Amino acid sequence: MLDWILYGIGNVFEWHIILAMIFGVAAGIVIGALPGLSATMGVALMLPLTFGMPPTAGMLLLIGIYCGGIYAGSVSAILLKTPGTAASAATVEDGFALAQQGKAHTALNLSIYASVAGGLISGFALLFFAPQIAKVALGFGPPEYFMLALFGLTIISSVSGNSISKGLIMGCLGVLVSTVGLDPITGGERFIFNTTFLLSGIDLVPALIGLFAISEVFNQIAKGSKSIASGATLKKEKFSIKDFLSLKKVIAKSSIIGVIVGAIPGTGGTISAFISYNEAKRSSKKPEEFGKGSYEGIVASESSNNGTTGATLIPMMTLGIPGDVVTAVLLGGLMIQGLTPGPQLFTENADIVYTIMVGFILVNIIMLILAKMAIPWFAKITSIPSNVLMPIVLVLCLIGSYAVNNSLSSVGIAIFFGVIGYFLPKYGYSVTPMLIAIILGPLAEKSLRQSLILSDGSFMIFFQRPISILFLVFCLLSVFVPLLAKYKERRKQNI
Predict the structure, then answer these.
(1) Which residue of 274, 327, 367, 398 pairs with 322 in a disulfide if CB–CB is 3.0 to 4.6 A?
(2) Coiled-coil intervals in this record (predicted)?
């Protein structure tokens, strides 16, 4: 292995590979920062460019778009309360709160440092532990997926604001929304109201754009703000390595969660980001700051969703199973280059594989350099007058929604959720629990029903497998530890 790693290090610094990575990262940052244009779309659009390229250069160009796109989703999440990608949805509240306080530079620096740290940790996991992690991922069946989804749904109690009951109501509403379309087991129609565009269900991207982006446009118009950072001075604060190292525990833990979740096929950065955000809040000494501009909240989300980028390549390369939607497109790119994913890839094409894995690490370093150069320009967005910025954002949101399916129905869905995201928070109903339920609802329903089919209707299947039991313990801890902490705090106040 060491010989091949050294070969990959020597090979990855060829000029055409470096140029491919730089172009890929730059394109990914632009695509990821635009609402609705996901990393998946970016990789798919650029895939034809790789047809005539050498395998290593072609794959690293696509990986650059992937990593750059996942990171750049945080840029619009922080500056505009508009997640560029679904994986940055957990960054919205804290990132935008800092931008409104005039600390856009700080939030953007936190995001890029955490993203690169998560990417590097996942890159080294890909390089040194891919086969071992893939074996663990193979242990996941329907019961494990259900318990993972259930664990994710316990996050609702942490992001419900001042009222857990209202958060649960929004969570139930999100689960209801996730059931629209065709039944995943029987194929029956559910809640489509004699329409055809709802047969495929409610797409996550239009719902996400509506709940956060379009609703924020309505808010800015209603408030009549002159700019996003209205009343605050844009501060170009120094962010030192010492400041970054003070968050090292959160970053390390969140990156590892990202690697674990990312290696499980069918999950991805959105789920890992919310799980890490919840864990960071649970273990924080200042949980009350989450949602109001917490540094820990931003780095937990961003290190975790970028921690999945390398991990999703693990099942793709070792087993031929894509870790998420983006790696499904990357899998196609790999096969177009004449490479067959699986164990034989590491024996028959070790030179190419190790160059790609070493290149993944270099991609994250290039991303750091390009993003740091762009941060001063990104931060200036908050000072643009709202009467200029908001119409541009609204147009981008509508275009992004349309681009999902090339359908006006997706635009209608985005506007519908925009109205929900505008009115319900005024009555204390946070939209984040609804988003989490929309994301996790399909996984929870499908895996629950598959599990019960396997067990002939017995719920004991969830208590007979080690990984399933482990996630059940995590669920209980996630629910009862915060309640116990609140109980102790009340007792102290009474004393």
Answers:
(1) 327
(2) none
Q: Tell the residue number behind the tokens 């290696």, with chain if given.
A: 263
* DSSP-assigned states of every residue in 432-457: HHHHHHHHHHHHHHHHHHHHHHHTTT
Task: Spell out the long-range contacts of 449-454 with Cβ–Cβ below 8 A and sequence spacing 24 or more.
Answer: 449/184, 449/185, 450/142, 450/185, 451/141, 451/142, 451/143, 451/146, 453/185, 454/141, 454/142
Please give the backbone phi and psi of residue 200, each rounded to the nearest 5 degrees, phi first.
-85, 5
Residue 255 and residue 269 in contact, taking contact as beta carbons nearer than 8 Å: no
Report yes or no: 463 and 470 within 8 Å, Cβ to Cβ: no
- pLDDT of 379 above 80: no
Residue 90 belongs to what H/E stretch?
A: none
Q: Please, which residues bridge with residue 189 across strands?
A: 182
92 DSSP 8-state letter? H
Kindly state the percentage of the chain with pLDDT values over 90: 25
Report which secondary-structure segment, H or E, holds 189: strand 189-190
H or E segment to which residue 236 belongs: none
Domain segments of the chain: what residues?
A: 2-494
CB 15 within 8 A of CB 52: no
With contact defined as beta carbons under 8 Å apart, do 159 and 433 qualify? yes
Q: Averaging pLDDT over each range in 25-39, 107-121, 342-356, 367-381, which range is the top one?
A: 107-121
Q: Based on C-alpha coordinates, what's the Rg of the chain?
A: 22
Residue type, 204: L
CA distance 255 to 272: 9
The vertex-383 CA angle with 381 and 388, nearest 5°, equals 75
Task: Give tens-digit pLDDT for 218-262.
Answer: 888 887 766 665 544 555 666 666 777 788 899 999 999 999 888
Cβ proximity of 382 and 77 under 8 Å: no
SS3 199: coil
Q: Are 383 and 229 in contact (CB under 8 A)?
A: yes
> What's the whole-model pTM score?
0.84
pLDDT in tens, 317-332: 887 777 777 888 888 8
- The one-letter amino acid code at 231 reads G
**101 φ, ψ to 5°?**
-85, 0
